[in-house]
Amino acid sequence: MNPAMRRFLLPAFLLLLAVAPKLLPPFYITLINYIGLYALVALGLVLLTGVGGLTSFGQAAFVGIGAYATAYLTTTPAAELAPWLAFFGQSPWLTLIFGLTATGLLAITLGSLTLRLSGHYLPLGTMAWGLSLYYLFGTVSFLGRQTGLGGIPNIEFFGIVLDDGPSMYYLIWAFLLAGIFTAQNLLDSREGRAIRALKGGIVMAEAMGVNTSRARMIIFVIAALQAATSGWLYAHLQHFVSPTPFGLHLGIEYLFMAVVGGAGYVWGALVGAGIITILKHWLQEFLPKLLGQSGNFDNIVFGIMMIVVLLRAREGIFPLLRKIGSRNSTQTIKPFNPEAEPLPKRDMPPQGDTLLEVKHVTKRFGGLVANNDLSFTVKAGEVMALIGPNGAGKSTMFNCISGVNPPTEGEVVFRGKVISGMESRDIAKLGMSRTFQHVRLLPTMTVLENVAIGAHLRGHRGVIPAAWRLDRKEESRLLAEAARQIERVGLKEHMFDAAGSLALGKQRIVEIARALTADPSLLLLDEPAAGLRFKEKQALAELLRKLRAEGMGILLVEHDMDFVMGLADRCTVMEFGELLAEGLPEEIQTNPKVLEAYLGGADE
Ligand code: ADP
Ligand code: MG
Predict the structure, then answer these.
(1) Ligand 1: which of 396, 556, 579 to mutate, judged by most atoms within 8 Å of the beta carbon?
(2) Taking a C-beta distance cutoff of 8 angstroms, is the pair 124, 251 a contact?
(3) 394 lines ligand 1 (CB under 6 A)
(4) Which of 76, 279, 300, 563 is the most buried (most CB within 10 A)?
């Protein structure tokens, strides 16, 4: 499909949506209404699970909160409610506000309890509160127990009573499209990149200044609010609520929808909800006929289908559709204004000023002493090399300095401030940036977007401006800065390539660009030349010399001795966590202890 046709796709889809209620029989309208309701919940899961990597089985419970909040408040006589609740009960629009507020508060509470859980504990945690809320709906007498609550009034919209499927249709789809639109905008922003960075690992995201707990909480709350909105719409479509649709079973089904559609793609939510709703309906109708007996065969077929999707199309069905649509599939080429006003820069300390002081740092992992009483300094405008055989403790030292692990003993001072014990993101704020020995990029994101994560601390616009595209001016400046750094490290022609498609050596250079985008005064590079070809190494050395001349301090961990010796101003040599030698490169090269450590069988 050519780009002109793709541009035509969305308006055509919207037009089709607009006229559908006029053309289709009521049965299909109902079906499409349900697809819309489900897709709204699945959309939250796309953000939460697909983008943020947090799995929740409990979304149906949030749908229940939205539904029950409005059901209870709009059907209970005002005299029986506390005055402030009676106020909300006057109109479904007020109960929507009430339901969203209640859901938001509950999500923050549940999130602060469960989001800290890692691995499979988080999904288990979501199941736990999903079940509790489900049983709460079925147990509390004022919520009607298993009988539920009926007689929920119609929503009115500027005098129009939304009393049937077709009229609710427009409201449901307006909410869904607004949800898709804002989610897409959010992902394409500074906060969105911070959220997407979660999948690159907490250590990387925090090193770029992202508050990962906050980023997780943001998507958790957004997903909960979208689910609650769906519940509110559902209650006023059905005019009746009971606990069944808010149980764990539906919680799992929502997750199915997100995964089948394509958990990383906002439109995947719609594709997944559409496919599953239609298929389910179809299977419920035809399977019993086909098999000549009644039963829940649809669930069995679903299970099988899920396994097939996981095996054959792990990314879901939406990306497959997109691939059919165009050859050049995953990259979205983001237009940005390279002329955007440059971001303000940090004051660089004068050449020769001490930037970093490592004072008697010891780091123990249980009985293992990875760093033993090490001290050294890095000055502005110098390249300080930290060398030593594999396992000497160099990366551990990087982690002590950059706040990934606090030192067990000793102190790290950066620009006059004690930073040992500080959070990695707070250290980043002071002007320290780093790369990783094991590259930590988001492989499906473009080089430009990856590098722009480095600019996180140089922007300020939050989630709401991003969702409504009020952040475009700042966003242009951040992207232009990222582009400048990509050009600076010589990767301009790869700007819009997926980072994962680059050779490993080039990915290391992308990490340097990302670190530079943070505008650091101290750069920590963990084996930047590994995997580079000779020419590329020369170019990297040239770049580091230029940075040094601009006054940047560089702490360099590197294995390639030729590379280090041609570049470093001073060297510190480590072995088994201890200081072996320090001095000028030429002194180090002839130091017998160093020669022995390197030639005496230590693997390199
Ligand atoms: P280098 O970067 O010099 O090759 P590292 O700093 O990666 O060395 O490792 C030094 C030693 O510390 C190794 O023995 C390694 O196994 C150990 N080590 C590093 N990180 C951890 C950790 N998080 N937990 C336990 N041991 C660790
Ligand atoms: Mg290492």
Answers:
(1) 396
(2) no
(3) yes
(4) 563
Interval 553-578 mean pLDDT? 92
- State if residue 399 touches ligand 1 by the CB under 6 angstroms criterion: no
Report if residue 502 sits inside a domain: yes
pLDDT in tens, 114-161: 888 877 888 999 999 999 999 999 999 899 898 899 999 999 988 888
Residue 321 confidence (pLDDT) above 90: no
Do 29 and 120 belong together in one domain? yes
DSSP 446: B
Summarize pLDDT for 385-424 with one digit per residue, the tens.
999 988 999 999 999 999 999 999 999 999 999 999 999 9
DSSP conformational letter for 444: T
- Are 291 and 410 members of one domain? no
Q: Is the CB of 332 under 6 A from ligand 1?
A: no
Report helix, strand or coil for 421. coil
What is the 368 CA–ligand 1 centroid distance (Å)? 9
| Ligand 1 centroid to residue 399 C-alpha, Å | 10
Q: What is the spatial distance between Cα 469 and Cα 476, in angstroms, rounded to a whole number?
A: 12
567 and 513 part of one domain: no
Element (H, E) at 593: helix 592-599
- Total domains in the fold of the chain: 3
Q: How far is the CA of 437 from the centre of ligand 1 (A)?
A: 12
Query: Do residues 97 and 26 share a domain?
Result: yes
Task: Choose the final residue of a domain: 519, 546, 578.
Answer: 519
